[in-house]
Every structure is written in C-alpha cells, then in structure tokens.
Amino acid sequence: MRHLGKADIMAVSPPGDNPPQPPARVQTQTELRMKIEKDRVVRFHYTVAEAGQEPIESSKDRGEPLAILIGHGNIIPGLENAMMDKEAGATFSVDVASADAYGERRDGLSQRVPKKHFGNTRLAPGQQVVLQTNFGPRAVTVQKVGMSVVDVDLNHPMAGKDLHFDVEIIEVREAKQEEIDHGHVHGDGGHQH
Ligand code: ZN
After folding, report:
1. How much is the pTM?
2. Ligand 1 mean position to 180 CA, how many Å?
3. For each of the chain's 193 residues, which pLDDT tens digit applies?
4. 136 CA to centre of ligand 1 in angstroms
5. What ranges do the domains of the chain cover?
6. How many A from CA of 181 to the centre of ligand 1?
C-alpha cells in the first residue's frame, strides 16, 4: 500500500493552473450563524479587570482562546449569560457584579492547613496559591505562615469583586456527546485527556 506523499498532494493542482479559490468561507459562514446556547462549545478570548481598573488577566497572554461548554457551570454565570445567542466574530463588553461572578466575600472562611499540603512552595501572606482539595483545585489566599501550618482564606481571590470583561467570540460549535457527558470541552483550549 502506498501512502500519499506531499508531492502527490501538490500534484493535484498543477502550478499555474490554479482553479478559482474554492468557497472556503462556506464553513465559516455556517459557524458564524451558529448561536451560543446550551451544549455548544465556545472558544473565546477575554480580558478581565476589576471594575474601573487595569486588566488582571487576558487569554491573549496565554496565546490561545479559552474553550468552554455552555450550560454546565464552567464559567461564571454573569459572563455565560452575556454570551448567550451571540455568534463567532462577535465582540462585546460586559460588567458583571460580584454576585454573578465569584460571589460575595464571606467571613469565617479561614482554615488552618498542614504546611506539607503546599509542597515546596515558598509562602508569604497575601499570596494566592492553588490548593488541591477533595472538591478539586481551589484558589486560596495565604494569611499567615506558621512552622507547620498555614492559615488560608478560602474565599476565591476574586470574591466580592465587580468585574469587567472584554470578550471576542472565536468559534461556536456543537459539543460532542462525550463532552456533554463529561461536562467539559475536550481538545483545543479544554481538557486534554
Ligand atoms: Zn473529559
């Protein structure tokens, strides 16, 4: 059995006799018409800032859009709601109140954690670290570092903050059944497993 080499593929259209470009936009137009709704996958770029301040984070810094499965609690409700019915190519800004973002700050969420759970991480008060918990990874803020224990604030670092998002929708597609079953996106910008 012979495998197609690059030369074979090149030979398909002889040089100097290029047919008019095939309607490569057809696929794109299909995607453009697909609206964001439950059980669809959205790839998007975002920049987030605390209301009235400089950006905290942007997907463009990572160089690849974020991919999420709509309707499965994968992003904060305020951002998901703002995306609904939009299509690839859309850009928009939205202000999300803390209640629809990471929730309000709650008192009494300090917890004393054995230092060994932090591995070799050098810890300082005010530092944000990700702690592996029974409920998955959780971002916490270090309050106090002792000899063998660390006090952390379990409030999400963004809790209590009103946020401003600038969003660009890159792609909208149907989710695969496996993605719906898992509740998250597989492949580009999602889970790699
Ligand atoms: Zn999965």
Report:
1. 0.69
2. 9
3. 444 444 433 334 444 555 555 555 555 555 457 999 999 999 999 999 998 899 999 999 988 999 999 999 999 999 999 999 999 999 999 999 999 999 999 998 899 999 988 888 889 999 998 888 787 888 889 999 999 999 999 998 889 999 999 999 999 999 999 999 999 999 888 888 8
4. 15
5. 33-102+159-182, 110-153
6. 8
